[in-house]
Amino acid sequence: MSFNQIKQAIYALYLTNKFGFRLRHIHDSAEMSRLRLEYAETLMQRLNIAVEVENTEKLEKGGQYLMVSNHRSIIDPLIIEIALQHMGVHGSWIAKKELYNSFFFGMFTRNAGTVLLDREAKQMGSFFKEIKASVAEGNSIFVFPEGTRNKTDQPLAEFKDGSQIIAMKNRLPILPVYIKSNANEALMNSLKNNAKGQKVVIEIGDIIDYRDRSRTLEEAYRQTFNIG
Fold it and tell me: Are 35 and 22 in contact (CB under 8 A)?
């Protein structure tokens, strides 16, 4: 590991826990969203990674959605927070149990207004109850339907069950977004040398009706972005 990588990792750990501590004292969802965005912008500026958004005209400003995205990098949530800020879309992230226990992300994840997904839980009632409460506060729900980072050579991994159920239970239009760039490659390039700026492009897709049962969510997502 190079000196620059070590330096960036230490700064990222400091910043993540700093904002995690600040978020611990916040209970207003709008303020939580503001602080998450501030964190995302601060870290991405440090990494010198810019976010470019395509097709913003497809999104009604300030709406509530179930946002679904592909997932290849640990900075994907930051990219999405930044991409959606100008459209007035803020939400609660669904976070898996492993992130709650993470040394690096644990404090931030637990305090940032996320909804815990414990796949080992026998009952999912409390999970859906938390989502409903978040939606009632005016939040969208953000989820990576692949379930974890896609580390394969394929552009998209198989979607887990559940995302479409969340949309239906809460009557949320489904907002598909696609991180077109290899965000993990941009991150690795930045860690090697952040003097050279990187750019990540994210595309907004057409809204998917949560009542549409003619195809699976994965099929609709693939068709939206022409993913084979």
Answer: yes
What CATH number is attached to the domain comprising 77?
A: 3.40.1130
Written as six digits, the tokens of 163 are 């995302």
Residue 199, SS3 per DSSP: strand
Q: How many domains does the chain have?
A: 1
pLDDT of residue 121: 78
**Residue 75: C-alpha distances to residues 58, 190, 197 (Å):** 24, 12, 15
Helix 183-192, helix 29-47: angle, nearest 10: 60
DSSP string, 135-183: HHTT-EEEE-TTSS---SSSSSPPPPTTHHHHHHHHTPPEEEEEE-S-H
Per-residue pLDDT tens digits for 72-114: 999 999 999 999 988 889 999 999 988 888 888 999 999 999 9
Range of the domain at 115: 3-224
The reported pTM is 0.93
- Dihedral angle sign, alpha carbons of residues 171, 180, 119, 82: negative
**Torsion over CA: 144, 125, 219, 82 (sign):** negative
